[in-house]
Every structure is written in C-alpha cells, then in structure tokens.
C-alpha cells in the first residue's frame, strides 16, 4: 500500500505510470555521479513540503551500517557523498560507475522510499515505524500487529490520478479461508486476498468474478474486466494440467533486465547479463 512516495515512475508498466517523486535524473559520462530533480508541490501528510533535504537524509539513512534492506548494501558500498544543489535538486557522487543506480530507488528493484527528515528527527526511527508519515495517496491511521492496518485517503495527493475513490481502507489479517468467506457473506469485508486462479478452483472463478466486477474498489473491477476479456485463456489456466511458468519467468527476467539498464539494453549486453545471471 503506497503511503510513502516512490522515487521514480514504473517504467515496466505500459504505458509508464507517472507517480514518482523524481522529475528527472541524469548521470555524467561514466555514471560516477547522478543528479536527481524532485518534483515540486509534493507535501508530506502533515502539510510540510518535500525538499531535497529529505532526499539527502533518505540516501544517507539507507547508507548507514545499521540500516538493513534489499538495496542498502549496494548504496552503502558505493556512495561517496550527497550534495544538495537547491531546494529540489541533489547530486550523488559514487565511488565507482553505476549505470543502474536509479533502479535501486525504483519500484521494480529496490523501492527505497523517501523518508521525511523532519519527522524522523523529531520522533526517531522507532517512532517513525510506529506511526509512519508518508506523502502518497494513502495516509496511515492506526494498526494492531497481527490484526489489522487502517488507512485513509489523501485528497491532497499531488497526482490526482492516484487519489483513491473511497475514504477509508482497513486491511485485516484473516488466515482461515472459511472465515474470510463468512465475512464476505456477512458484508464485513469487501474483497478477499485469495484469488481462485492461484488455487486452481474453476468452480469458484465465476462467482468471484461477479463479485469483483461489482466491487466498489476500482482496481478490482479493472482486474475482473481484464480476466473476462481473455476468459478462454483464464479457464485453460485453471483447468488444464500444462503450465508455462518457467517460460514466463524467463520473459519477466528479460523485462526486468531491460528496465534495470535504462535504455542501454543492446542485445549483446542483454545476452551477457541474462546468461551470467542464469
């Protein structure tokens, strides 16, 4: 659930989804220095403007020896320093060339989200984890560990396309499938996380699609419409014994490499990276 603003738009989507906080990025000739420009007009959920100071604080936080995340090691090992050029621009200097640096902050690979400097310094990182402050379309309200997490829509999100179509959202942890079904029947829940396609339950597909198609949640209606448009293939997926998972996995791997290389994906480079990774 997107509470905190992503750095970059998703280049893997078609067409690309322009929801990133970075308005532009540029490297020097050998990719040892990167300049990132922050989109103007983004505010944290407490009304404070997002600035280049937040970007600098974020990168330096992920580079700390005590910070653990998927891309923290790569950032920590190669970061030389971060400089604030103006209110909306920062300059990264690296120890060695890295043409893949933006991918560490993008939603596909690293998803290192921007942190609010003022809030983290006021409450500390334990306080931030207990009550996170974001800048995206959803505002954190409250949570109970192992029970639920609750959000409310952010009507002031800079990107009007991302503003949710409903005011509140509560995500409840219900491990037992029968309990989830009972909650749906009683009207206590809108949508179960389990899709019958994944469990190969063709008899439940049609009722699930009818329910999803009338959901108040736009993404679910869109997803159901997409399945209905290719119903023959969907039915085959849940009824036939054959599968093409390994092939799809290789295709997705190639797509990911293309996105990571940011336009430098000549065939010889793609083949080298793909074969080495395999």
Care to describe what's here?
The protein is α+β, with helices and mostly antiparallel strands. Among the domains are: about 110 residues, Dipeptide-binding Protein, Domain 1 (Dipeptide-binding Protein, domain 1, Alpha-Beta Complex), CATH 3.90.76; about 35 residues. Helices cover about 40% and strands about 15% of the residues. The protein is built from ten helices and seven strands. The strands form two sheets. It has a four-stranded antiparallel sheet with strand order 1-2-4-3. A three-stranded antiparallel sheet has the order 5-6-7, with no helix packed on it. The protein is globular and about 60 Å long. About 5% of the residues have low confidence.
Give a topology summary.
Elements: E1 22-27, E2 33-38, H1 52-62, H2 72-78, E3 79-86, E4 89-94, H3 101-105, H4 117-130, E5 138-144, E6 148-153, E7 168-172, H5 177-186, H6 202-213, H7 218-229, H8 231-239, H9 245-260, H10 267-277
Antiparallel strand pairs: 1-2, 2-4, 3-4, 5-6, 6-7
Helix pairs in contact: 6-7
């Amino acid at each position: 659930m997107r509470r905190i603003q992503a750095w970059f738009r998703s280049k893997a989507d078609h067409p690309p989804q322009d929801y990133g906080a970075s308005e532009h990025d540029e490297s020097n000739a050998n990719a040892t220095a990167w300049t990132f420009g922050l989109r103007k007009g983004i505010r944290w959920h407490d009304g404070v403007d997002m600035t280049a100071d937040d970007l600098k604080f974020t990168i330096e936080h992920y580079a700390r020896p005590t910070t653990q995340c998927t891309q923290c090691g790569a950032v920590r090992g190669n970061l030389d320093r971060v400089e604030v050029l103006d209110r909306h621009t920062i300059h990264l200097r690296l120890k060695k060339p890295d043409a893949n640096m933006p991918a560490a902050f993008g939603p596909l690979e690293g998803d290192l989200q921007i942190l609010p400097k003022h809030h983290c310094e006021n409450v500390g990182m334990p306080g931030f984890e207990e009550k996170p402050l974001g800048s995206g379309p959803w505002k954190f309200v409250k949570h109970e560990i192992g029970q639920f997490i609750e959000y409310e829509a952010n009507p002031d999100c800079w990107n009007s396309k991302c503003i949710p179509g409903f005011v509140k959202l509560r995500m409840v942890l219900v491990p037992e499938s029968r309990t989830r079904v009972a909650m749906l029947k009683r009207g206590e829940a809108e949508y179960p996380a389990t899709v019958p396609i994944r469990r190969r339950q063709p008899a439940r597909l049609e009722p699930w699609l009818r329910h999803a198609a009338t959901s108040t949640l736009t993404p679910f209606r869109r997803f159901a419409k997409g399945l209905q448009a290719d119903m023959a293939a969907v039915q085959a997926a849940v009824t036939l014994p054959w599968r093409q998972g390994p092939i799809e996995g290789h295709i997705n791997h190639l797509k990911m490499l293309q996105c990571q290389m940011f336009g430098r994906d000549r065939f010889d480079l793609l083949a080298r990276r793909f074969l080495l990774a395999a």
